Amino acid sequence: MAHYATALPFIPQRRTLATLRAAAAACQGCDLYLKATQTVFGEGVVPSRLMLVGETPGEHEDRAGRPFVGPAGSLLDESIAAAGLDRGTIYVTNAVKHFRWEERGKRRLHKKPSSREVGACHPWLEAEIAHYYDTVVDPRSGLVRSDRKFSAHRDTVVNRSNAFGNSMVALLAKTIEETGWFTSPFERHFEGDYGRLLIEHFWVGDHFRDALGDETVSGEANIWPFYTGVLADPLHVASALRYLDANGFCDPYPLRYETSRRPEREVWLTRHVLPDYQGSTVWTSLGAMYLQVLRTVDPLLAASETARYVSWIERDGTL
Ligand code: SF4
Fold this sequence. Notes:
There is one protein chain. Helix content is about 45%, strand content about 5%. It has about 325 residues and is mainly α. The protein folds into 2 domains: about 10-135, Uracil-DNA Glycosylase, subunit E; about 140-315, Glycosyltransferase. The protein has a 3-stranded mixed beta sheet, with no helix packed on it. A two-stranded antiparallel sheet has the order 4-5. Helix 10 (about 235-245) packs across helix 12 and helix 12 packs antiparallel against helix 13 (about 300-315). It starts with 16 loop residues before the first helix and ends with a helix. Bound molecules: iron/sulfur cluster (SF4). Iron/sulfur cluster (SF4) binds near residues 24, 28, 39, 97 and 121.
């Protein structure tokens, strides 16, 4: 029998994937380690676009020591590919790290872990999530780290800590806390007020600036905080929309990303192939979000603007 009621005593002080994986290999937080072949810890890229959490390892995972291999892994690979993603770019793990099984003749039959075992193993999942968090968020400020580049290769500009990225982190924090599934690593920074950091660091009187240490304004920075619902104060919404309208973001209609080019932020390919990518391009996706945000403060204007937008789409056949 295990001498421990939880995995907590086995969690290392220093959290990297390597230290966590090594410590989990010796875990005796519940009885499951006694019959399983080995610990099956998470694997993949951190930070990644997606972190997938399964329930528990099966027979194939237990033998291989890796999550999501065998038939379940093949099915997952197909699903990931169908979603347009690549398994090599995501992180996969399980809520419970050892295979639970019972003997049936010569076979080992998978058994669902008990709620006690799921609870005992929870510190590992929380540690994986906390490690993931540390790679994206500055633990002192709670803002997206400005010492890392995001989207540098997949997108066409270099993004660091900006209003868009921080809106997405605030949305994630809000969603995690609403589920109540685990202790959110974001708790200490947001304290239930998800828009607070955005206002403190990006709001400049009557609109949002685009990024830390950069006074440039973007349409994106003034739509995402409201579109994600992390900020809903109508005064802020109305002010930001007024600013966009008064400063040329809505001309051409419905919304420009920026009103001038910033070649220093573009990756080399963009500079040559899409020189006007963010300078005067109208972003139709942002336009639809803009209309949705406008609806929250001026439904009548939003309805007439939407009708105008629809008529242009029909006229130009750009559906
Ligand atoms: S299932 Fe989790 S808590 Fe239990 S021994 Fe394995 S790693 Fe530790």
